[in-house]
Amino acid sequence: MSFKRVQLKMKPDLVARLDAQAKLENRSRTELIELACEMMLSQQGAVEGTDATMKMLRKLIQDEVTPQFNRMAKMISKTTKASATAMYMQVVELNHAGQDAVSIFRDSEARAANYLTSKE
Predict the structure, then answer these.
(1) What would the pLDDT profile of 42-62 be if each residue is shown by its tens digit?
(2) Residue 67 lies in a domain
(3) How far apart are CA 103 and CA 106, in angstroms?
(4) Is residue 5 part of a domain?
């Protein structure tokens, strides 16, 4: 394996700490600096890899969920339209029969609310 010589300028206290650690681990300054550089670059690569993975996952989830969301929105829209049409038809029929549709619907709404709260 070939090496390339690199000159570094470091603060004296950092060099002292590096030398003390090298002596403690029975390694050279160069070995510790190489190890520190490799660890830092590996961590940075892991973070960048995680960011890319998260971005890809978000896109996959969005691509999967968006069509389902749009389908549900269309279903809700159709259901709302059908309900409104049915209610209008009932109002017309009740009025045609000479009954007060508004009072009947308010009474029905109150009964439904009482029924639902009694079930909770």
Answers:
(1) 887 777 777 777 788 888 888
(2) yes
(3) 5
(4) no
